[in-house]
Specification:
Number of strands: 5
Radius of gyration: 12 Å
Shape: globular
Order of helices and strands: EEEEE
Number of helices: 0
Structural class: mainly beta
Strand content: 35-45%
């Protein structure tokens, strides 16, 4: 199954995602926007903007460190 991200996703992060639940391979794209209350991620992938439900998205690599707040 797909797991929940352990760290908050913010625009500029690289994320891995599946377009469909039964996909075997993960795709990697750039997170443009994440809307938590509807759990929707907008991801730039191969020149297209995709809208993917958060349950199919995981944080792959964080973006620039300066934009992230320390806890």
């Amino acid at each position: 199954g797909v797991t929940r991200p352990t760290q908050k996703m913010i625009p500029g992060d690289l994320v891995r995602f599946k377009r469909f639940e039964n996909d075997r391979e993960w795709n990697i794209g750039l997170l443009l926007e994440y809307t938590p209350y509807i759990k929707l991620a907008e991801i730039l992938y191969e020149g297209q903007t995709l809208r993917i439900h958060a349950r199919f998205v995981q944080l792959h690599q964080t973006g620039k460190k300066g934009k992230r707040k320390k806890r």
